[in-house]
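User: Structure please.
Assistant: Input sequence and predicted structure:
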Amino acid sequence: MSLKEQLFNDLKTAMKEKDTVRKEVIQIVRAGVLQIEKDQKIDNLDDDSVLTVISKEIKKINDVMPDFEKAQRQDLIDEANKKIELLKAYLPEQLSEAEIEEIVAETIKNVGAVSVRDMGKVMGSVTAKTKGKADNRLVSDVVKKMLQNL
């Protein structure tokens, strides 16, 4: 079953169970998927592209969290955390920092990076390997740290 089909089935289940938060989150992701399909004039979006949509939604929620904290709105923080957890359930298992460091070290060696100036080359290759499996901000931090220590 594709990820898109799984989202549709989970949406039906959430509607039957009257789980409004889950329903809302899935509808947002499905709307993003349908928009991409419409824009690119394709019939069925592949799982990697659906994972990209899910990752973007998680990033959007994370971006507004500091505002909620600044306003001391614990109710909004709790709701945002619940949404993030629901979305993360659709992502593949996330890589640990040690696993990311391994991938980065291998990539630095393969690309022949010698300084921080080569960050773009390294990031391009690493993000392709870690797509959907790691937060790009964490990957960027690891790459930067390892290139500075060369």
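Helices lie at 3-16, 20-40, 47-70, 74-88, 97-111, 119-130, 136-148.
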